């Protein structure tokens, strides 16, 4: 066991590591002062209302949006209306939507007590997703995983309310497996069942029962959905990482939600087969390894599950790989202190990894433990500081002095890559705007007419530079899976700043 440390850092023989950590965490020359985390929390949840598909409810707060995609599923005789548009386009991709639901639920499970009056809105955000996930899993042995043709949609720039592109429905089944998206859907349903356990017991039971059924389908018919549906889902949400991690992820959430021995035994039995230790510092809609290790490690830290000890070791390795100053080939920091990983939309990595840092720091705190990293240790307080530094960067403590959350702070992105935000609202322009007619708005240098409050964009490049321009979609496009982990982070810091 690593020695206890009452400081943020344990003993640091490697002076360079200590200096790097201190510079990044505590000497912040570009600080904009204290942040209103409660305001940012409110806005981060409000963002999801701007992403809603289907018939909007009477209490809809984002008024520049209207009903859209009201015939989704009709081509296959199903009602598949509802759910979320994942980003700035008008497609409903099931894989990232399910991951978004899982992370929103995890945030409520761990940090809902810190959300205050925003808790009810966070729960509504989850339910908007789970109502849809229940629709797409109604038929046993089938999961409808996408509505809309991404190629025709991406060839247009039009409001969701005007959408006239083809709304093809794509599914997985026994002959066309998709263990990745089905495993993530099972995880989302199981995690949400915990959220609703005391709020809506009957709904919670429905979610858990459906999660059990969907997971059984995912495990029985193994395969990647990007093999079965390659032309529809690639390169948009092609599963590069494989489906094995989603099976462990789904089993982990089912174990947490149901406490059934079969899922514990499944995890232990399949840990090596499903590569639990792979890519320890990856976590997002495509790769669940770091999340699996952190989630399962809680039971080890609570002294309840020694048979999961290997997951705890992996979680510790994940933490060590993120510490600034400790060289790791897959994790870098920008000069301004932002976590940076290869691939597009970097902010998805920032919020997801920061969420894990915070969640694990809480588990460590309750167990009175630290993380051993070679000749030093990392305390729970250090992990919280590192997570908070990332959140503060997003909110404006960065070289650009820009908040990367739209509507928060004095300076934020004005030209985000988002159709509904960049085109005039139906209220302002009732006439239909066709597929190509929206191009002039896409290319316009003017700010978006509809401020998509709470949207967090893909963010700056590795040099901290940010082009506030719609065509630079990797930097300027918001996504639900950037915001979902941020909700839990902001909840915690709103109560502990």
Description of the molecule:
- This protein has helices at 15-25, 37-50, 94-111, 119-136, 150-154, 179-195, 201-220, 225-228, 230-233, 244-258, 261-270, 289-301, 309-322, 347-367, 380-395, 419-422, 439-443, 473-476, 480-496; strands at 92-93, 142-147, 169-173, 332-333, 339-340, 371-373, 376-378.
- With 497 residues, it is mostly helical.
- It has one domain: Glycosyltransferase (Alpha/alpha barrel).
- The strands form three sheets. It has a three-stranded antiparallel sheet. Strands 4-5 form a two-stranded antiparallel ribbon. Strands 6-7 form a two-stranded antiparallel sheet.
- Helix 3 runs parallel beside helix 6.
- It starts with 14 loop residues before the first helix and ends with a helix.
- InterPro entries: 6-hairpin_glycosidase_sf (IPR008928), 6hp_glycosidase-like_sf (IPR012341), Glyco_hydro_9 (IPR001701), Glyco_hydro_9_Asp/Glu_AS (IPR033126), Glyco_hydro_9_His_AS (IPR018221).
- This is Endoglucanase.
Strand content: under 5%
Quaternary structure classification = single chain
Question: Poorly predicted ranges (pLDDT <50, ≥5 residues)?
Answer: 1-20
Could you say which overall geometry the principal axes of the C-alpha atoms support? globular
Number of helices: 19
The major beta sheet can be summarized as: 3 strands, antiparallel
Mean pLDDT: 92
* CATH architecture group name: Alpha/alpha barrel
Radius of gyration: 22 Å
Number of strands: 7
Top-tier CATH class: Mainly Alpha
Terminal-residue CA separation: 30 Å
Main β-sheet, spatial strand arrangement: 1-2-3
As for the number of domains, it is 1
Q: From the helix content, strand content and strand pairing, which structural class follows?
A: mainly alpha
